[in-house]
Write a structure and sequence with these properties.
The chain is of the alpha/beta class and about 290 residues long. The protein is about 45% helix and about 15% strand. It has a seven-stranded parallel sheet with strand order 3-2-1-4-5-6-7, sandwiched between helices. The protein is globular. The structure holds NADP nicotinamide-adenine-dinucleotide phosphate (NAP). NADP nicotinamide-adenine-dinucleotide phosphate binds next to helix 1, helix 4 and helix 6.
């Protein structure tokens, strides 16, 4: 854990001035950008993730940008550590107003070849990690009759796609938990939001795009992390129920779910076309056919 340096000169400006925000998965990608954006808006930001060096670097940037940062190395699957970290945030900043669950793990694989232990690892971070953080903040958010929780799920949490079947399962689970919690918290002053991004240009997406079956997918289809950040900030500011990135994408998914067979066929043909195109351009790699235990 690092102590917060003295507030910089421009502290006090910004929409989230003096709000206490906890961001999980702050060492990379979306969580990193979200934490920085809250800092730029004058918030007190507690940064959680396992990689301490990245958190320390970000903490400096947040402090320079006008916020105040507290960096804590925390594995979200370690429940006592998560509860302790939230206590540290409350001690440093007096309260927690906003929790952003961005920590996530994606192991791309076809359903047939998914190793059960990989699905368990993804569940541990994407579902239990978010649950740990939510349960750590909820008692006092309920007591203070205010608070915002923003869970970053995925468009893959509304429609299963290959080779993200296991990952999709975890994101569907997160959607289910979030929707149920929203009902439980109705009229309590505590708001829970879902942010549902498509493909975002982060280390996670770049890793997934290395999987043989989607290697040909053009990188230009990936959107910048800042688009998700705007969605998260809007969700937290207005207590929005659900925000898609790009806007309206989940509506298309809901329409597609009315015709699941047609949707399956279109997605399947599209990905086969991509694979063929990639192979023709010489981008394909020889598949390792060895069994996965
Ligand atoms: N990129 C996309 O296309 C996309 C699309 C839809 C949804 N999402 C979701 O957006 C969120 C952020 O993803 P990203 O794209 O920004 O991925 P990323 O760049 O890989 O970042 C993932 C973050 O999660 C943290 N994390 C992983 N395991 C953790 C653990 N056990 N404990 C604490 N932190 C952990 C990582 O930090 P450490 O390794 O330092 O712990 C890292 O900060 C995820 O929930 C992801 O599922 C991403």
């Amino acid at each position: 854990m690092s102590d917060s340096p003295k507030p910089p000169r421009n502290a006090g400006l910004g929409y989230f001035r003096d709000r206490s925000v906890v961001v999980t998965g702050a060492s990379s990608g979306i969580g990193y950008d979200v934490a920085l954006a809250f800092g730029e808006q004058g918030a007190n930001v507690t940064l959680l993730a396992r990689r301490r060096v990245q958190l320390e670097e970000l903490a400096q940037k947040v402090n320079k940008a006008g916020g105040r940062a507290l960096a804590i190395d925390c594995d979200v699957t370690d429940r006592p550590r998560v509860f302790w970290s939230i206590d540290q945030a409350r001690e440093a900043f007096g309260k927690v107003d906003i929790l952003i669950n961005s920590a996530g793990l994606l192991i791309a694989e076809t359903v047939e070849e998914t190793r059960p232990e990989d699905l368990e690892r993804m569940m541990a971070v994407n579902v239990f990690g978010a649950l740990n953080a939510m349960q750590a903040v909820l008692p006092f958010m309920r007591k203070q009759k205010s608070g915002n929780i923003v869970n970053i799920s995925s468009l893959a949490g509304r429609r299963g796609v290959s080779p993200l079947g296991g990952y999709s399962a975890t994101k569907f689970a997160l959607v289910g938990i979030t929707e149920a919690l929203r009902v439980e918290l109705f009229n309590t002053g505590v708001r829970v939001s879902l942010v549902m991004p498509g493909v975002i240009d982060t280390p996670m997406a770049r890793g997934a795009l290395k999987h043989e079956s989607i290697k040909g997918m053009p990188a230009m289809m990936a959107m910048p992390a800042r688009w998700v950040t705007w969605a998260v900030l809007a969700a937290a500011a207005f207590g929005l129920t659900e925000v898609d990135v790009p806007p309206g994408a989940a509506v298309a998914e809901k329409l597609a779910s009315l015709f699941p067979g047609v949707t399956d066929a279109l997605i399947s043909m599209g990905s086969r076309f991509l694979q063929t195109a990639t192979q023709m351009m010489g981008g394909g790699e020889k598949k390792d056919d060895s069994p996965k235990r």
